[in-house]
Amino acid sequence: MDADLLRHILKTTRFSDSLVQLHFHGESLLHPQLGEMISLCKDAGLNVGLSTNASLLDERRSRILIESKLDTLVLAFDGVSKEIFEKYRKNSKYERVKENILRFLDIKESMGAVTPFTDLHVIKIAEAAPLIDSFVGFWKDTPVDQITVKSFSTRAGQVDETQALKKDWYFGRRSERHPCRWFWSSVIILWDGRIVPCCHDMQGKIIIGNIKDNTLEEIWNNAKMQALRKAEIEGRHASICENCSEWYGTPPGLFGFVSSAVIERFKRMVGSEHSNHPQIFDVRYRRNGLPTNTANVPFSAD
User: Which of 86, 122, 235, 245 has the smallest number of CB atoms closer than 10 Å to its CB?
Assistant: First the structure.
């Protein structure tokens, strides 16, 4: 996405949430105007987040992220060991990425910067699970702000699910399906202005509009979006949703919401793995003595 398109989006959009994530399924550090893009969002009064695999996080880019006042930085390292890291992160070198992260943390600390809040992520796949405790043990002695173990995502059935045990998927095993609230809560604006309704639509299969042609408010309420919502309520799921086990939802209506919340609370109390509650991010460490309870929050695509 170029800076002019971002300016157009910021000028024509009323944001219901102050958080904007400047990433999707690419690597944002490749963007030649990244610092300017962050600054434009900050000038518009937005809270700006970014996720990176840190392979390109050199000293110059580190200073850009810090000096642009980025609010949150997710470091998607997944480096519990050299062997596992280089097996999945093709053409990336474990030691180099580890060094990039450590240098970034040192630069941030030397500048006395509070932001970006730095959250180090590792995905809980079957091979990595036995090494996660040692991973956390090493990184909690660095200036990182938070260490998060992230459940495995099949990306709506588009990723090989055998890499992780089902109990370590985003929601574990699920026995029922309710309307997914993504269609009522957020959208993704692609680099060229096209808009998709879900972060699992990695290839832009369902285009609901283009921000160059209509405002986001118009697209949010257009016929395509309304048809998607109606079909979801009726159980006629869109193509990318048919094999998805990572939907967010409760039974329709107030009674459905309350009853689902009560049932979920009971399941969590007894330790049931048959839960529809989004147990996605397990915060293992947080600096300054802040609570480290499991964070049940919607994911961002990284």
Answer: 235
Task: Please give the backbone phi and psi of residue 53, each rounded to the nearest 5 degrees, phi first.
Answer: -85, 0
Residue with tokens 């405002």: 215
Which residue from 168, 118, 170 is spatially nearest to 139, judged by alpha carbons?
A: 118
Phi, psi of 298 (to 5 degrees): -60, 145
Give CA separation, 189 vs 6, 147, 169, 175, in Å.
10, 28, 26, 32
The alpha-helical segments, DSSP class H, found in the chain are: 3-12, 34-43, 59-67, 82-88, 94-110, 132-139, 216-220, 223-233, 253-270
Say how far apart CA 174 and CA 181 lie, in whole Å.
16
Task: Specify whether the CB–CB gap between 82 and 95 falls below 8 A.
Answer: yes
| Neighbouring residues of 240: CB distance < 8 A, sequence distance ≥ 6 | 156, 158, 198, 200, 201, 205, 206
The residue length of the chain stands at: 302
How far CA 42 is from CA of 15, 62, 114, 254, in Å, comes to 13, 18, 16, 37
The first and second tokens of residue 241, run together, are 């949703």
pTM, entire model? 0.82
Mean pLDDT in runs of 10 for the chain (302 residues)?
A: 95 83 91 96 94 96 97 93 91 95 98 96 88 95 94 72 61 67 88 93 92 96 94 85 75 58 59 50 80 37 32
